[in-house]
Amino acid sequence: MIAVNKKPQTLVAAIRFFDADTADSYLASIKWPDGQPCCPRCGSVNVGWIKSRRRFQCREKACRKQFSTTTGTILEGTHLTSDQWIAAVWMIVNCRMGVSSCEIARTIGCKQQSAWHLLHRVREIMRPANEGKFTGTVEADSTLVGGLLQNMPKARRARITSRHPHAGKTRVHVVRERSTGKVRATIVDGETAAELHRHVRANVEHGSHVHTDAAHAYKSLRGDYHHSFVNHARDEYVRDGVNGCESFFAFLRRGLAGTYIHASPEHLAAYIDEAVYRYNVRHESEWDRFDAAMRAMVGKRLTYKELTGGATR
Ligand SMILES: [Zn+2]
Known about the structure:
By secondary structure, this protein is an alpha/beta fold. Helices cover 40% and strands 14% of the residues. Helix 3 (82-94) crosses helix 5 (112-126), helix 4 crosses helix 5 and helix 8 crosses helix 9 (265-280). The two termini are 40 Å apart. The strands form 2 sheets. Strands 6-5-4-7-8 form a 5-stranded mixed beta sheet, sandwiched between helices. A 3-stranded antiparallel beta sheet has the order 1-2-3, with no helix packed on it. It binds zinc ion (ZN).
């Protein structure tokens, strides 16, 4: 098995680099870091390689299980060839605003459904980027995003929003760790103290310094956190504000307004996880993003049935 020593930094370089053998070697090196393939059923390392089928077979008499480098990973059971999923994963993790399943299908030449399935499996591994606690100085803020209203004629939109100011909009809450610039975001149900606190407490260590805007809802955080705030109404945007959160909101809105206009509400939470992932890795190299996604795929699996809850789309 060959180790990856040259790191391709563009999609074209990656496709040239990963022929079927290299793709298998690469996956094997992630799956079995000690270089020894082992049977997923009985754990035996007495395995052979069936070259014609690109599969391993367990040599234990009672087992004889066949398996491949994608067995037990998020890629298990994919109908895509290795060069197709390499290109697709590369696009998904490296296109700044994300890509749609249609766009992937057109580019790599597969069924839209296969691309959609892979896209959602990759999103699944992006989720852990939206977990784990921040410390130090943390900014917290929320905003409204999306909604069907953006596709409506102006007059009609104005009529509806005069009666229902937040019609069709979803409130997203974000916390941002100032030392790393990383964010965590989630959908919240309105601007109630309970909702905002839930997200702050889940993502920020007690005793941290939380900066917010003047929203009263944050006031009762004071028992557990050092709290300071700026008053947007009085234009106190200066130094200690929550401007870092604004940069994530702008990033999120650009994504929603572009590729994902048709993002369905039930996938919005997954979309936000993806945006958090993208935002947090935006300064890394293309290869590093691809490699990190591939490593996270090992041992994770999401079937089409699990994803759709058994229903066909
Ligand atoms: Zn076995």
